[in-house]
Amino acid sequence: MRARLLLLSLTGLTWLLTGAWPAHGQATRPAQPNPDSLRVEWADVDRFWRTYDQLATAGSRADSLALVETQYLAPATPGLRTYVAAAHASAADFLAAWRTHRRYLAAIRPATQRIGSQKAAILRAARQLKRAYEASTFPDLYFAIGKFEVGGTSFGNLLYVGAELKCAPPAPPLAELRPDLRGGVSPVAALPTVCLHELVHGQQQLRNARTNLDGALLEGAAEYVAFRLSGRLGSGEAFAYGRRHEAELRRQFAREAQQPLVAKWFLTSADPATGQPGALGYFIGFRICEAYYAQARDKRAALRDIISLANTAPLRAQAARYLGRTGQ
Fold first, then answer.
1. Which residues have CB under 8 Å from 294's CB, separation 6+?
2. What is the pTM for the complete model shown?
3. Which of 20, 57, 213, 217 has its CA 20 to 30 A from that of 323?
């Protein structure tokens, strides 16, 4: 997601939905017009496991911190380096996160070591996007083990995927994860769809998302395009719930569409008061885009509209019809 960072603060949510992360880290090459030039890099994940294994032999906390700094952070790729800077993270922050997720990390280790097996499928997904939207460009894609807060996002000319959340086995143990993160965990086999979603965010021209409707269009468009091109949904729980309770969700969202961004519509945590799953804003936006595509005579042009969000007026008109009110 440009929102795909699973953060709690509204500041983080705004960054997440606008892609307006601070410009930090190492310079990267511009996004490439050729999908076959997409760089898929998981060296940080391999380096993480080497560092993590060495922590077992550390004689003190100081030794552990030195290992994290020298073996993991100092040689980081531009992707991890940029994430560390944007999150204002230290070796101590990483060490604390890893030590409180020992069982979970043990469970996901084999899956995180299979990222390379998904590279060909990720490149195929990129080619599909290029065929659908010829203006597509492709920033470098980096995987790393972070601090259990980021599923995926764009930082300028690169895409970052938190492998600890997006490269899991089919049924990982979730008890150590924050409740708001559990719904965002996905298996390594879903990486092509996850990456396609992120690549779509890289094409979007809607900037400065301020309202819930803006957020729904950003996330719903990325989700819809990823689904159309891959056949796979990235937010299964939200969509299953949304299909069962769509009329009520439409009424709820219509009341809040023009309000400032509200975390409950876009973060993955369930609402304990209502039992509703998180990320239902993705579902609302998806359904708006789906309806817009369905009624369009020129399907290719409609798909380009959804990918680029260069002119959102037609989609906002569709949102007004879907939500049952005007003035959206």
1. none
2. 0.89
3. 20
